[in-house]
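pasting for the record
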Amino acid sequence: MEKDSIYLLTGAAGFLGSNICRQLVDAGKKVRALVLPGDKAAKFIPAGVRKVEGDLCDMNDIGTFFDVDENLDVYVIHCASIVSVNPEYDPKVMSVNVDGTENIINACRTCKGFRKLVYVGSTGAIPTLPKGKVHKEVGRFNPDLIHDCYGKSKALASNLVLDAAKKGLNACIVMPTGIMGPGDDSISTTTATVLRILKGEMSMGINGSFNMADVRDLARGVIRAVEKGRKSETYILGNDAVTFKDFARLLCEESGCKRIRFFLPCVLAKKIVAHSEKKAARTGSKPLLTTYSVEVLAKNNEYSSAKAEKELGYSCRPYRQTIKDEVEWIKSKGLLAHQTNP
């Protein structure tokens, strides 16, 4: 007789985590979510999920989170992390992303019903290759080759997971590229940028590219990794790279918003943004773009999801479909009340 199972999910209040929750609940799975005390985004966690308040960096809280019926098969999805667009070292980012992951690993080791851990890493932990080459999975991460705090923290945490798997823990890693799509109630940076374009507030773009996958497809890919991911393996979950110009054009075609007429070369954009950052630092304001964000657009954003497609059955819908659905969601939420007509 097959045992009942439970899914323990961190980061359930986030954009990706809430979609993972939703798909698991829709499939009739029992889900428990770790939520920071007072997290306003907790209201976005789907009904039917049991919420346990706690901090990743507190082993007592982790112990409570893992306190489940020992007759249940336990599957752990570690999705929580602090995402930072500031490349400078941040001890809080390191503490949550690295130490928090180590706490989850230790809890998995002592959990009687534990069956599998899927760690949601990031392609930001993979060193950038020259343009013309395609990024693929790596067997080991080198944090010394990563120059931003977030990417370095994800590289360090990923190595902790791989080390634990080498010692016997049934664990694998999925690495999303970027996340977009409908249902981003907390309005992430990507969704905020989409809103600015739709409202006609962005007069210029940047001649760069990025790689974004639909949050619904990423959530499905994470769950497929629980079902099919091989121990010690890493899987890139991404999409085709798209230029900012083509992305903005698709947004215009699907929404009728004002077109962005000018796209600055990345080299020039970086100089302008650096000046804006200095001005923002003097005035205490927040710059619309950062040097780091321009560097992300300027780099090689080609990633292969072939391994995940073959082993997990991962697939990602085209940008046009995601944009169409996101625009419809944005309109349904009344977020374009001040939209500028073309």
